[in-house]
Amino acid sequence: MHSRPVVGLGLVLVLLSALTFATSPIFARSLIDAGWSPEAAVIARVSVGALVLAVPSAIALRGRWSVLRRNLAAIGLFGVLGVATAQVCFFYAIRYLPIGVALLVEHLAVVPVVLWMWLAYGQRPRRLTVAGSVVAVLGLVFVLDLTGATRMDPVGVLWALAAAVGLAGYFVLSERIDGELPAVALATGGMAVAAVVLGLLGAIGLVPLNVNFGEVSFLGEPTSWLVPVAGLSLVTAVVSYLTGIAGTRILGARLASFVGLIEVVFAVLIAWLVLAELPTLVQLFGGVLIVGGVVLVRLDELRGVPTVGGVDLPSPETATTRSGS
Predict the structure, then answer these.
(1) Domain coordinates of the chain in residue numbers?
(2) Most buried in the list 89, 93, 152, 266, measured by CB within 10 Å?
(3) DSSP labels for 50-114?
């Protein structure tokens, strides 16, 4: 049992991780509004983050390079789907949607995870999981406010849903990768793969890599492009991952996953205070339903993780690192 002061430290670290993750749309929006393509913004974020986290990753591995080698294929898939796809699609989504709305839609990732586990592993969802999934989908209806005066750009909604699929892949792959691979090494490898893949796709012209090395507008003030890039890479990647990993090791993945849900609240509040973007009451109600649905699914996970052939199946809970927003 952890002592109360240690648990308190764990809570502070996980909350700090959620808060710093929640600032990523603000930094990204500044770059995108200045002409950066979402792909270029993601490359800036993950390449710097991977470089800074390379040393902590090497320390965590303690010379066990064989662990890294046998997980190279899984790390590659994790980087492409869980990091590059999730982040690029989310950054495209905030081009068309308010940040809070895009993040709420992305958090529907729990639904495709449940469906995947059912179709791929025959893990039929229990009643509480089904109820949580239905509540989350119902929340999406209210977030989109389909019958109200607010009209969501369908392009943005599709990008946000694609980000949810990428985030779902992140959750599934996080749990399937070798448990001997340190979480910080997985995060670093995933970010490095994402940077390389997006860079290669940009080099051959398959994705746009537009950048603007002039002044950008950040928090309503003109500033150097280095400011949002530093914030996006150092604050929302390095600080977020390190505090999230440290906090999760103290609290455990399950408790940390519940505390981490406050990231949505932080993101909505930051977007309101900084960009004057506040979802309508109907959308906020839908957001409550989405978060409530995720909570129900995760509560169901507390009843035990099913196995196939003695191997634990992945569960739609937050792993020790995140990458979607």
Answers:
(1) 4-312
(2) 93
(3) HHHHHHHHHHHHTT-HHHHHHTHHHHHHIIIIIIIIHHHHHHHHHHHS-HHHHHHHHGGGHHHHH
Are 189 and 64 a contacting pair, CB within 8 Å?
no
Cβ atoms within 10 Å, residue 165: 20
In the block, tokens 């995140």 appear at 322
Rounded Cα distance, 232 and 157, in Å: 23
pTM reported for the whole predicted model: 0.85
Residues 6+ apart with CB under 8 A from 5: none
Of the candidates 140, 131, 79, 80, the residue with the CA atom closest to the CA atom of residue 109: 140
In contact, 137 and 195? CB cutoff 8 Å? no
How, if at all, do strands 221-224 and 307-308 pair?
unpaired
Return the pLDDT at 212.
Answer: 92
